[in-house]
């Protein structure tokens, strides 16, 4: 899968910039900043944590390829802990925020975060008993690596507010370029 403005994909830890041909490392942001953390679950228990560190390319927000964000993911479920050196797109986070807001507004439903490169796919469901359940999968090297499938539930629905706020902070900091 090619992203606009690049000559390669983010698998294998890098992406080739169309203008320079240089490979950008998806584990290091071009302009390091304090991370924005998106946490689903309890950091002392089962959770998914996405740390948005910055852009994979130094470019204005409206430039091609500027929508890729260095976003390492940590997943702690049951006896497993997984780390994924992901690059997520700003529009993927934007759509997830919109979905979570809709779940919050209507008092039910499902919100999804799915990366186009299959780093992560997860669903947050507001159950009829008022708790959240999370199911998903993460790949350490999409298409060729290992896949962790996970599920946890019983989260208080009050977590929706902080989730929406963290995703909104990402949009405020990095913008949201319309995706495919």
How is the quaternary structure best described? Answer: single chain
Derived structural class: alpha+beta
CATH class type: Mainly Beta
Rg value: 16 Å
**Contiguous uncertain segments of 5+ residues:** 1-24
CATH topology: Transcriptional Co-activator pc4, Chain A
| Total E-strand runs | 13
What number of domains?
Answer: 1
Q: Strands across the major sheet, in which order?
A: 3-4-7-8
Question: Roughly what fraction of the amino acids lie in strands?
Answer: 35-45%
The total count of helices amounts to 2
Shape: globular
> Could you spell the SSE succession in H and E letters?
EEEEEEEEEHEEEEH
Distance between the termini: 11 Å
Mean pLDDT: 82
Give the helix proportion (percent range): 10-25%
Please give the CATH architecture: Roll
Largest sheet: 4 strands, antiparallel
Commentary on this structure:
With 180 residues, the chain is an alpha+beta fold. The strands form four sheets. It has a four-stranded antiparallel beta sheet. Strands 10-11-12-13 form a four-stranded antiparallel beta sheet. The chain has a three-stranded antiparallel beta sheet with strand order 5-6-9. The longest helix is centred in the middle third of the chain and has 17 residues. The N and C termini lie close together (11 Å).
Blueprint (SSEs and pairs):
Layout: E1 14-16, E2 23-25, E3 36-41, E4 47-52, E5 54-55, E6 68-70, E7 73-77, E8 80-84, E9 87-89, H1 90-106, E10 109-114, E11 120-126, E12 131-139, E13 147-156, H2 160-174
Antiparallel strand pairs: 1-2, 3-4, 4-7, 5-6, 6-9, 7-8, 10-11, 11-12, 12-13
């Amino acid at each position: 899968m090619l992203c606009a403005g690049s000559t390669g994909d983010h698998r294998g830890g890098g992406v080739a910039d169309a203008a320079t041909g240089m490979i950008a490392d998806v584990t290091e942001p071009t302009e390091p900043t304090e991370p924005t953390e998106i946490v689903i679950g309890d950091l002392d228990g089962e959770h998914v944590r996405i740390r948005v560190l910055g852009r994979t390319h130094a470019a204005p927000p409206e430039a091609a390829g500027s929508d890729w964000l260095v976003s390492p993911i940590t997943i702690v479920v049951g006896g497993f802990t997984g780390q994924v050196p992901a690059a997520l797109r700003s529009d993927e986070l934007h759509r997830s925020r919109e979905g979570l807001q809709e779940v919050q507004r209507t008092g039910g439903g499902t919100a999804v975060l799915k990366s186009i490169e299959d780093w992560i796919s997860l669903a947050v469901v507001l159950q009829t008993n008022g708790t959240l359940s999370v199911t998903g999968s993460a790949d350490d090297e999409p298409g060729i690596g290992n896949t962790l499938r996970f599920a946890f539930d019983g989260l208080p629905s009050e977590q929706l507010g902080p989730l929406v706020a963290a995703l909104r902070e990402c949009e405020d900091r990095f913008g949201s370029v319309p995706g495919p």
